[in-house]
Amino acid sequence: MAAAAGGMGYSPLFETKKGRGRFMYRTFAISLFVAIFLIWVYRLSHIPSSKVEDGNNKKKWVWLGLFGAELWFGFYWVLTQALRWNLVFRETFKNRLSQRYDDDELAGVDIFVCTADPEIEPPMMVINTVLSVMAYDYPTHKLSVYLSDDGASHITFYALLEASNFAKHWLPFCKKFKVEPRSPAAYFNNIFSVAHQSNQYDHTHTLELEAIKKLYDKMERRIEESTKMGEVPKEARLKHKGFSQWDSYSSKHDHDTILQIILHKKDPNNSKDVDGVVLPTLVYLAREKRPQHPHNFKAGAMNSLVFNLH
User: Fold this and answer.
1) Cβ neighbours of residue 259 under 8 Å, at least 6 residues apart?
2) Cα distance between residue 279 and residue 306, in whole Å
3) Which sequence ranges are marked TM in the entry (predicted)?
4) Sheet containing 281-286: which strands, arranged edge to edge?
5) Sign of CA dihedral 135, 181, 154, 296
6) Cα(271)–Cα(110) distance, rounded to whole angstroms?
7) For 124-144, how does the pLDDT look when each residue is reduced to its tens digit (9 = 90+)?
8) Cβ–Cβ contacts within 10 Å for residue 51, how many?
9) DSSP classification of residue 12
């Protein structure tokens, strides 16, 4: 048992367990090393003659190639035993984190979600990921979620705006009923195919489940219609000034930086859920891209996020 520091009376945050079958693996490893060593001995005891004869020069090069490969294989295999010789597994106890520390003592956490193309990665799939990380069991005022859209799609931005409104209902629902998984699509597929049909929920839970599912379906319909048409509804454009940044937009490979803070605790009128709890910070970002400069795809986007945050 290994504990992550602390004092008397603290429960461990993780447990270290030894892997099973260590004796059998070590026996196998030793026998394999002996076999590798015997191959080396055989090679060294059968070095081709250096006399000038037909074919001797070719044999020597073949011998060198084989011996070099066997040496490299043996060296690589010995190095990998550092991880395999004493195999251990660690089980974490995430629920104990809040028992040990107050909310104010926990560190702030930044979560990056990356996407690149609304056709390859549909906006509904992206926002389900965003909603699932926003609903983490962690103090919401310590949580910041950044969506890096390398395709700079106004459809993805619109989907994120819709998700921010749905989150005001989804996060309280997750907390109240200890929802798992916390991706709405995965949760609803599981609930309505198995659990809900078995009538294991009380009447209140069933009513709230149906209400949140209806909100999700409406959001999904709006996003899917916009994705299919390739346009954001006019009323949505007029409602949020962030769409003005697409006025100078050229293409997904050539555009200015687009940065929009959608949810932040400094905006109390918009950053709280239906229970009055502050929501995680939610930011949309599309880095500047120019065709004449290498952008290094999602790795470049991640570098841009880290650099701008620090």
Assistant:
1) 283, 284, 285, 286
2) 22
3) 23-41, 61-79
4) 109-115, 143-149, 281-286, 258-263
5) positive
6) 17
7) 999 999 999 999 989 999 999
8) 6
9) P
Helix 203-229 crosses helix 123-134 at what angle (to 10 degrees)? 140
Contacts of 100 (CB under 8 A, 6+ apart): 6, 10, 11, 13
Q: What is the CB neighbour count within 10 angstroms for residue 39?
A: 16
Q: In the structure encoding, which two tokens stand for residue 103, read together?
A: 């909310």
Asked whether the beta carbons of 155 and 226 are under 8 A apart, the reply is yes
Compute the half-sphere exposure of residue 46: CA atoms within 13 Å on the CB side of its CA. Answer: 11
Query: Distance between CA 166 and CA 6 in Å, rounded?
Result: 39
Token digits for 211? 């209400």
- Euclidean distance between the first and the last CA atom of the chain, given in angstroms as a whole number: 36
pTM above 0.85, yes or no: no
What is the reported pLDDT for 56?
A: 65
Helix, strand, coil content of the chain in percent (nearest 5): 55, 15, 30
Q: How far is CA 136 from CA 109, 143, 256, 278, in A?
A: 11, 9, 32, 14
What CA–CA distance (Å, rounded) separates 134 from 137? 9
The distance of Cα 95 from the centroid of its chain, to the nearest Å, equals: 20
Q: How many CB atoms lie within 10 A of CB 139?
A: 19
Q: How far apart are CA 88 and CA 69, in angstroms?
A: 31
Among the residues of the chain, which ranges form H helices? Answer: 22-45, 56-84, 97-100, 123-134, 154-177, 184-190, 203-229, 234-239, 297-309
What is residue 182's three-state secondary structure?
coil
- Beta-bridge mates of residue 147: 113, 284
Tokens of 160: 């994120």
Could you read off the pLDDT of 13-59 as tens digits, one per residue?
A: 889 988 888 889 899 999 999 999 999 999 898 888 766 565 567 78
